[in-house]
Amino acid sequence: MLRISKMTDYAVVLATHLAATKEPHAARDLALETQIPEPTTSKVLKQLSRAGVVASQRGAKGGYTLARPAHEIGIEEVIQAIEGPIAVTECSDESTDSLCEYEPNCGVRANWQRINHAVHQALSQITLADMAFPFVDTLITIARSGKEAERARLGESPQGDAH
Amino acid sequence: MLRISKMTDYAVVLATHLAATKEPHAARDLALETQIPEPTTSKVLKQLSRAGVVASQRGAKGGYTLARPAHEIGIEEVIQAIEGPIAVTECSDESTDSLCEYEPNCGVRANWQRINHAVHQALSQITLADMAFPFVDTLITIARSGKEAERARLGESPQGDAH
DNA sequence: TGAATACAGGACTGAACCAGTCCTATATGT
DNA sequence: ACATATAGGACTGGTTCAGTCCTGTATTCA
Ligand code: SF4
Ligand code: SF4
């Protein structure tokens, strides 16, 4: 399904919630506001804290705030904090040199890596500030380059010698 | 990690392999060419067949061919054949009215659905003919619309009353 | 100081999903 | 008939995920 995990979803919801104010929010309060169970909320926020997405303050009057302004935090960063690096395929993990056993003779590897990069870029550019308002549709569109003609030509004869 | 399953990866590799010729390929032959184990290859191809991505011919001299020309089959279709509808979040499944329990008071739902739609579009436009050659980078780019200024302004004051 | 608050870290569990194999049935060509 | 090759589905071990809970530490304030 190409889906982010539930925990990651919670993370985006919570982080977006934090974007609303600069006051520290206790995990318990955020749980009440979002309806997400408190232990789970706490777990997610701890992970976000370790990843540097949110800052934490212990003790009474403590809580969580965003580590930086909302418009400087891309949701890719939030996703990565919970799930690790974005990698659409096993071979497109840019952090580790993860080796797929089929890699030596795999013809689609290079293209998957480019697709992965595009997704990564798109999610990096959408910030928590964007998520707080319904304007994302004006920000993200997938555009084909002017090489459409070339592609169509190649597409007509995929078995041709196109080296 | 926002990853497609291994089976889906195999499906794209196999389908791209089929794009090279119009002759029927037996599952066994494809398995040898791609190094993917034969039972797994067979399973994946059967799923692709049921989804209408590939056509099958039983009996001696039989095998699999693409159901349509390679440049008419988007990889989104291949992914969907194995994993079901693309849905980045639970609420962004366009096929079913899947209801998330947090949906009523979730502020990021609309934006996730737009992101999901963009990803869906991008993967639909990349065809098997594209995957057979390293030209995808010329085809997919993420573009921001001209509303960047508006966004930046909003991003500066996410806590402001922007209703 | 001591109590209350709130985060940090990690262990733990049941459930769901995934990867891969195998068996039986059916269709096709020689 | 017989060999070939797909169709469908059952089945299993392993892994990952969602969620909870416990112990420890830092901070505030009376
Ligand atoms: S190398 Fe090929 S088979 Fe291996 S993960 Fe990448 S795309 Fe998939
Ligand atoms: S409604 Fe909100 S919480 Fe539910 S799946 Fe969609 S984004 Fe996630």
Q: Uncertain spans of chain A, ≥5 residues at pLDDT below 50?
A: 145-163
Could you estimate the helical fraction of the residues of chain A in percent?
Answer: 40-55%
Bound small molecules, deduplicated: iron/sulfur cluster
Question: In which order are the strands of the major sheet of chain A placed?
Answer: 1-2
Tell me the series of helices and strands of chain A, N- to C-terminal. Answer: HHHEEHHHEH
Largest sheet of chain A: 2 strands, antiparallel
Structure commentary:
Two copies of one chain form a homodimer. In chain A, α1 (6-18) crosses α3 (38-50). Chain A has helices at residues 6-18, 27-34, 38-50, 75-83, 109-125, 128-131, 148-156; strands spanning 54-57, 63-66, 141-143. Among the domains of chain A are: 90-124, no CATH class; 133-163, no CATH class. The first copy, chain A, is built from seven helices and three strands. The longest helix of chain A is centred in the C-terminal third of the chain and has 17 residues, at 109-125. The first copy, chain A, is elongated, with a radius of gyration of 20 Å. Chain A has a two-stranded antiparallel sheet with strand order 1-2. The model of chain A is unreliable at 145-163 (pLDDT under 50). Chain A has 163 residues and is mainly α. Chains A and B meet through α1, α5, α6, β3 and α7 of A and α1, α5, α6, β3 and α7 of B. One iron/sulfur cluster (SF4) binds next to α5 of chain A.
